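Key result, reporting period 2: structure in, sequence out.
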């Protein structure tokens, strides 16, 4: 990866930023050149997103200086940064759910005719950019709320790519994407590089950082550990600098013994999204779900949990011969089921509440005495899970909205582990999680399985599925087309199955 030019686009020096109880950035130095992809890596809470938010005008630093093309740069807000040609695609989605895909992509520059929005022109322009990022089969006039999180992520990226800029910051852009969508995104990045655009790239996927970046800056605890050309680094080098220890010898889950069937699903159907899906998962087993974006994995889990109403199918729980009546999530939780949604911000958390309150939410009754919450017991529970999952927060009282995305995800996981359900559905549990924390979550899943819990693990990352699962079910165009055991699977077999329902002839 050789930058198109050595001309410096951006410099940041002596950047400091403090949030309540946390030194987010300390004397950070950073620069970006034309036609370069400069990756920022580090554990959750290391300061990556904070630095990019300062550059993009979303946050203001406490001290330090920035220059763009040698001129002093101190944005007064995001709009001011965009006037300087600096744009950001953020980790958390900022789409307007009730607007159409096309309206979200061109929200700031809707074409008009005679004072009215020209929807024909709008949809035509949207189709062009959507085709480039792999959304060509989606109608630009449908509301964004009808799309899955992965597709919404691509809409957010399409909106960023549709606007001319000199600096583009991408914060965890591939967190919910499959290999096909990532390949399309990387193609767009190469085009931007050729045009001299500088790209700041944040990702926890170290392999893709090695693949796409020209230079890497490693942050730890708000400080720059190192900035080096990617050509001089190995994956193990980056991980060691990020976490301060060597993870290559960490042991993941091996083959374990499984118990009786905990969950049996027969003929689950929900329109074209879920078509006659049947499977079972046993106690002590981790069953993975793989598939392309839009294959029906999340829709299956939502129907299973009662979040969406299935049109047909039966669900049998805990060895019962009578089908369970799961009409809504309350019924599912009452039947000892838990669901960690892929949309942590919209469906998994109450961001305005404290860490303590979010962790206790699914089991609040057990912490009540005479109708009142025992806050001291609630704090003790929260501290237990903060320590167990290494949640980086100032205290149990810090509001969840102030945490990094990865630490927010850990809070959601803590909530459901505290609930102590027998059947746990984890939909993209490591999305936005750093490599060190991923290993912690893998081990936590293994521990839960060893305690006899039945676990469903949905992920777009085949390697992590193959590392922790006992079996992997593959979905394609709404159908469950194959299930592989450890001695049967390979990446090629899984991907072939994932594409099977999309291939004709």
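The corresponding designed sequence is given below.
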């Amino acid at each position: 990866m050789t930058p198109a030019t050595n001309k410096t686009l951006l410099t940041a020096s002596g950047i400091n930023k403090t949030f309540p109880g946390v030194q987010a950035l300390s004397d950070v130095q950073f620069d970006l050149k034309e036609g370069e992809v400069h990756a920022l890596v580090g554990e959750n809470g290391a300061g990556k997103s904070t630095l990019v938010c300062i550059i993009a005008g979303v946050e203001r630093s406490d001290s330090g200086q920035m220059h763009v093309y040698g001129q002093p740069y101190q944005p007064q807000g995001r709009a001011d940064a965009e006037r300087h040609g600096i744009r950001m695609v953020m980790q958390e989605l900022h789409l307007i759910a009730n607007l159409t895909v096309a309206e979200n992509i061109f929200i700031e520059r809707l074409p008009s005719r005679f004072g009215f929005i020209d929807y024909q022109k709008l949809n035509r322009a949207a189709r062009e950019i959507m085709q480039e990022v792999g959304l060509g089969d989606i109608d630009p006039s449908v509301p964004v709320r009808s799309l899955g999180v992965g597709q919404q992520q691509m809409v957010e990226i399409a909106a960023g790519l549709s606007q001319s800029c000199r600096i583009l910051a991408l914060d965890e852009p591939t967190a919910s994407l499959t290999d096909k969508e990532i390949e399309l995104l990387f193609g767009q990045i190469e085009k931007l590089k050729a045009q001299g655009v500088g790209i700041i790239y944040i990702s926890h996927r170290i392999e893709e950082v090695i693949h796409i970046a020209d230079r890497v800056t490693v942050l730890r605890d708000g400080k720059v550990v190192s900035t080096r050309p990617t050509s001089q680094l190995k994956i193990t080098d980056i991980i060691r600098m990020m976490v301060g220890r060597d993870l290559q010898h960490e042991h993941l889950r091996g083959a374990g013994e499984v118990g009786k069937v905990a969950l049996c699903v027969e003929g689950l159907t929900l329109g074209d999204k879920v078509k006659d899906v049947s499977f079972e998962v046993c106690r002590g087993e981790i069953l993975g779900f793989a598939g392309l974006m839009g294959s029906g994995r999340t829709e299956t889990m939502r129907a299973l949990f009662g979040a969406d109403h299935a049109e047909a199918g039966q669900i049998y729980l805990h060895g019962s011969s009578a089908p369970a009546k799961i009409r809504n999530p309350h019924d599912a939780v009452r039947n000892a089921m838990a669901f960690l949604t892929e949309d942590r911000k919209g469906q998994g958390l109450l961001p305005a509440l404290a860490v303590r309150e979010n962790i206790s939410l699914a089991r609040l009754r057990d912490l009540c005495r005479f109708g009142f919450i025992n806050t001291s017991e609630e704090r003790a529970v929260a501290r237990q899970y903060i320590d167990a999952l290494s949640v980086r927060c100032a205290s149990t009282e810090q509001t969840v909205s102030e945490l990094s995305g990865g630490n927010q995800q850990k809070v959601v996981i803590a909530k459901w582990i505290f609930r102590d359900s027998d059947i746990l559905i984890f939909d993209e549990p490591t999305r936005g999680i750093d490599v060190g924390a991923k290993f912690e979550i893998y081990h936590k899943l293994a521990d839960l399985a060893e305690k006899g819990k039945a676990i469903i693990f949905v992920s777009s990352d085949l390697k992590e599925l193959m590392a922790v699962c006992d079996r992997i079910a593959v979905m394609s165009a709404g159908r469950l087309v194959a299930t592989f055991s450890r001695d049967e699977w390979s990446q090629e077999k899984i991907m072939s199955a994932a594409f099977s329902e999309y291939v004709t002839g």
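The radius of gyration is 23 Å. The first helix runs from residue 48 to 55. This case is discussed further under Risks and Mitigation.
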